[in-house]
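[INFO] parsing input record for Late embryogenesis abundant protein LEA-2 subgroup domain-containing protein
[DEBUG] input buffer:
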Amino acid sequence: MKALKVSKPRSKRGKLCAAAIFLLLSVFLLLLILGLTVFRPRHAVTVVNSVRLTGVRAGFNAPALGVDVNATLLLDISVTNPNRAGFRYPDGGTAELYYRGTLVGEAAIPPGEIGTEETIQMNVTLTVMAGRLIADSNVYSDVLSGSLPLTTYTKIAGRVTVMGWFKHHVVTSTTCDVVVNISTQTLTNSDCKYKTKL
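[DEBUG] output buffer:
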């Protein structure tokens, strides 16, 4: 006589445990897919809309024939956050002014936050520090020619937090080469390059 094979029914606890594990894996997989597609961190973009000359004075001081250069540039900047999460920059940013590679002006960009898919505008004022220009012999020829080449550099570093879990460090920067016409107190040329690092 053959013995009957009795199958042991799966316990209720085992079924609940398997269902919970499956649910957790499904939620994790869904969050991972959303994080890599919809909520994928994107580059914040800083754009210099305009570089306006608000005041310039240049000339030679007698009798020492020293160069006296004072100029103020007003940068109109837009920062766009294309992410579906806020972009915070609690330490603010920096704006720098260069003359032929030499730092001649600096200003702080105040800290802030840019909302989801939002663009904000800010004005940054940079003033040329004449004392740093005197050592450069090119200043004399530039003043005589009536054109002063300058470079502006802005940098904002912050963080994008996706779904409250994933934090991504974002650095956006812009470099603009401008030429100031001393006699007309206007900008004759402006060429900007943009860069973002995740």
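[INFO] The longest strand covers residues 45-61.
[INFO] shutting down worker
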